[in-house]
Every structure is written in structure tokens, then in C-alpha cells.
Design a protein that fits this description.
The chain is α+β, with helices and mostly antiparallel strands and 334 residues long. It folds into 2 domains: 13-167, Jelly Rolls, CATH 2.60.120.10; 227-330, Homeodomain-like (Arc Repressor Mutant, subunit A). The chain has helices spanning 29-39, 139-150, 169-183, 193-209, 227-238, 246-253, 257-267, 272-289, 297-303, 309-320, 324-330; strands at 22-26, 44-47, 55-61, 65-72, 76-81, 86-94, 96-101, 104-109, 112-116, 122-126, 131-138, 164-165. Helix 3 runs antiparallel to helix 4, helix 5 (227-238) packs across helix 6 (246-253) and helix 5 (227-238) runs parallel beside helix 8 (272-289). The chain starts with 21 loop residues before the first strand and ends with a helix. The protein has 11 helices and 12 strands. The chain has a 7-stranded antiparallel beta sheet with strand order 1-3-4-11-6-9-12, sandwiched between helices. Strands 2-5-10-7-8 form a 5-stranded antiparallel beta sheet, covered by helices on one side. This is AraC family transcriptional regulator. Residues 230-330 form the HTH araC/xylS-type domain.
Length: 334
């Protein structure tokens, strides 16, 4: 089963991800509402139509966020008002849902996701058989991540809007990370370095793939990235261990250096070389958290073009909240 391929069959109890971390199963509406309210917030739960009602909720909890998989067999209206203490990322694995979150109204499903803001009245209608993968993340934690990674000013509220296409590019990569999170059941709840790093990556992934008021670029809802950016990023990912210069990258893409820089500023809010550095840091995290015999921080850094180990360690710590050595130690190979 993969999240990217949406190979989930709604209604089959064993088909839901996180089957090893069940929270509850119920065919009673009142019981389902109470059990969900215990981990989210109080709300109204109103089945619609004549379909048989059943609810299932699997949940894996960490320090600042939890990963959840939920399904309602019947078409269901959920009215929590304002969530207050947390943001809620929603990605339907099957079916569709309509979300009303203050003035932010959108449809999710069919490869599209969305985030519910905590300070606006919310009403959701899940279609019959809708099964959703959700990340519940503490408001303060995500806003802190937005301040450190996206320059969110003190006192300003992080606000998401619209639906986001997750079928390609960074969206697809983020689903791959989520697939890892749900396949490694228990990692988030153990409180170790690996779990903390995974939480950090999930929060950064939310900020990079879901549109919000601190995104450093303006696109039409669901609009694609500039072609030059997509081509350049594809080339970067395929050649992370090779020498890549701005001049060479522009030549590979077929545009001038100035045009490539402008495309990245418009599409990513960052320079091409900054994006390349972040891609290499993410590869370093993968290599260090899944080491082979003889894996070392120095070798990983050098292979990815980080020849100044002190600077590599500082960039890594800022991105993941720990040092490369701590990642390797947490994987048991240091």
C-alpha cells in the first residue's frame, strides 16, 4: 500500500494505514464523537443520508504532532467550530470532502489536500466512504517552524488557504515522507531523536507543500511551478552527488542564469542554490538515518558536496533540529 498511489479500499477494516495503532472502531455516533473529541476537540457529528454509519480511527502520537487515519462509512457532517489549539492537515486516501474554514472554502480528494486553520469556525462534510490521512500539529509548534523557516514575524498568525495538488513535485515527495511515517509505526511516539527529526521534517513539509500567507511566491490556486524550476529540480535530484553550478544548471534547463534565478524566486521564494542545498540536506538525513556498514558523517557530507563540515553541521541543525552525528547515533551506527 502506498499513499502516493492511493491504493486504499475504503470500507475494508484491514486496509487502513496505521492498523497497528488503532484508537477506536464504532458504529455508534455518540461514542465516535466522544472518542474523537478526546484527541481533537468537542464537535457535532451528524451522519447524512441513509448509509450505515461506522467510524474507524488509527492514531500515532508524537511530541508536537500526531498522524491519524480516519474513515466514516456514511456521508457525515463534522462541525467543531474553531480548532483553537492545532492545525489540521487533511489528505483523502479515498473519497472527497468539502471544507469550510472561515472564508477559506475548498474541496479535497483526488490527490488534493488542505489545512484547517485553528482560529476560524470550521464545518466539514466527508463523502460516503471517505478515508483521510491527517496530521494534527500544535499551533505553537507549527508557527515556530514558520518563523524559523519562512520568516513569520512575531505576533503574526500563520494562515493556510485553498487546496493543494499533491500528485507531483514536492507534494509527491511529501507523501513519500508520510508513507515512511505511517510504515514506521511507533517511531513518533518514542520521543527519541529519530522521532523528533521526523516531526520536524513533517512540519517543514507542510509549510513547503501547503499554500499559506508566508509562502514567498504567488501562484494561481493549483497552478504549476514554472517549467524551468521543474526541470532544474528534476536535474538536481538526479545529480545530487555531482558538481552543480548555476551556470551549468541554466545550460541544462535551456535558460539564462538570470531567468533561472527569477523563476526560482517566483516559484519557490528561494534561489536555485538554496533549493539545491536543502535537497542535499534531505538526502543527508536519509543516508544518516538509514545507514549502512561504515556510514560516517564525513563521507555523507563529502559525497553531497559539503566540504566544510562545520558549515554542513550548522545548516543541518537549523533544518532538522539536531546535528548529523546525533542522527547517526540515533540510528545506532555511530
Amino acid at each position: 500500500m502506498t499513499l502516493e498511489g492511493v491504493e486504499l479500499s475504503g470500507g475494508r477494516a484491514g486496509a487502513l494505514p496505521l492498523a497497528g495503532s488503532p484508537l477506536f472502531v464504532s458504529t455508534d455516533v455518540d461514542e465516535a464523537r466522544v472518542r474523537v473529541a478526546e484527541v481533537y476537540c468537542d464537535h457535532r457529528l451528524d451522519p447524512m443520508g441513509r448509509g450505515r454509519f461506522a467510524a474507524r480511527h488509527n492514531r500515532l502520537s508524537g511530541r508536537d504532532l500526531s498522524v491519524n487515519v480516519m474513515t466514516y462509512t456514511a456521508k457525515t457532517m463534522i462541525t467543531p467550530g474553531a480548532l483553537r489549539e492545532f492545525y489540521l492537515f487533511q489528505y483523502p486516501l479515498t473519497g472527497h470532502a468539502s471544507i469550510s474554514n472561515g472564508a477559506n472554502r475548498h474541496e479535497i480528494g483526488g490527490g488534493r489536500s488542505g489545512v484547517v486553520n485553528p482560529d476560524e469556525d470550521t464545518c466539514m462534510i466527508w463523502g460516503e466512504g471517505c478515508a483521510q490521512l491527517m496530521i494534527q500539529v500544535r499551533r505553537e509548534a507549527l508557527q515556530g517552524m514558520a518563523r524559523s523557516h519562512f520568516g513569520l514575524p512575531e505576533g503574526q498568525t500563520l494562515r493556510f488557504f485553498g487546496a493543494n495538488d499533491m500528485r507531483a513535485g514536492e507534494g509527491k515527495a511529501f507523501l513519500g515522507l508520510l508513507n515512511y511515517a505511517v510504515s514506521g509505526e511507533g517511531l513518533l511516539g518514542k520521543g527519541g531523536l529519530m522521532g523528533q527529526q521526523l516531526e520536524t521534517m513533517l512540519m517543514v513539509g507542510l509549510l513547503q507543500t501547503q499554500r499559506h500567507n508566508r509562502s514567498d511566491h504567488v501562484q494561481e490556486a493549483g497552478g504549476p511551478l514554472p517549467r524551468a524550476v521543474r526541470l532544474a529540480e528534476d536535474y538536481m535530484k538526479a545529480h545530487l552527488t555531482e558538481t552543480i553550478t548555476l551556470e551549468g544548471l541554466a545550460r541544462e534547463v535551456g535558460v539564462s542564469e538570470r531567468a533561472l534565478q527569477a523563476a526560482f524566486r517566483a516559484g519557490r521564494g528561494r534561489s536555485p542554490m538554496t533549493v539545491l542545498r536543502d535537497l542535499r540536506l534531505e538526502r543527508a538525513w536519509q543516508d544518516l538515518s538509514h545507514p549502512g556498514p561504515g556510514t560516517s558523517v564525513t563521507d555523507v557530507a563529502m559525497q553531497l558536496g559539503f566540504f566544510h563540515l562545520g558549515r554542513f553541521s550548522e545548516h543541518y541543525r537549523r533544518k532538522f533540529g539536531c546535528t548529523p552525528s546525533e542522527t547517526l547515533r540515533g540510528a545506532g551506527r555511530l
